[in-house]
């Protein structure tokens, strides 16, 4: 079955490239990894999804991880990326507007959940923590959607957070490290991160979804001459029922489940 699917992916790639007059490049492109830019918060999930896709198709996937803002900047500067898995909707839409992203490929692939993590906490209460703490960590709101969501939450407690020192990490991974190291007593990270690290449930509190703007995470294929022929297939996999189940187990609100892509 795996060999059959691999042959199908290669056949589809050859047909697609033939329609664009570039069939001679098909096999060469299949021999190089599919390059996927991944928002830092989605790194763990992306690794598992990429491994599953490679196992099924034989197509290797190279993940380039970082903050959404920095990855977007790299793509606009010509970084060799085939697919962008953003932590927001704005950057993929901006790439389409700049004619750097393929508009028909744009889709929201998941919703993130924000948590307040306090390693020394017990039954974490946001108001109590923000009142007692001298500092709080969050991802840079200018670069990371989770940082913007965290800012929304803090803004709900103006009195309690008036004297807080805000420690901004470049991305959500950096913020997690700051908290784990003890550099700050607590902060806002992704639910997927605390689940992946086995953080005890009493140490974090999931923020109500109506406390902050939705963390909608969108994807888009990048428009360039040598787009990997398996890029569309990987996009389909990310929106499939199998990927939806995997994401739900990892702390994301799954929005996929496209029955056309069962894998």
In short:
The protein has helices at residues 2-19, 26-30, 43-57, 68-76, 90-97, 126-132, 145-155, 172-180, 191-196, 231-238, 241-249, and strands at 34-39, 61-66, 83-85, 107-112, 114-117, 135-139, 165-169, 187-190, 204-206, 215-221, 253-254. By secondary structure, the protein is of the alpha/beta class.
Characterization of the model:
With 263 residues, the protein is α/β, with parallel strands linked by helices. Helix content is 40%, strand content 19%. The chain has helices spanning 2-19, 26-30, 43-57, 68-76, 90-97, 126-132, 145-155, 172-180, 191-196, 231-238, 241-249, and strands at residues 34-39, 61-66, 83-85, 107-112, 114-117, 135-139, 165-169, 187-190, 204-206, 215-221, 253-254. Helix 3 (43-57) links the parallel strand 1 and strand 2. Mean pLDDT is 87; it is low at 4-9, 11-26 and 259-263.
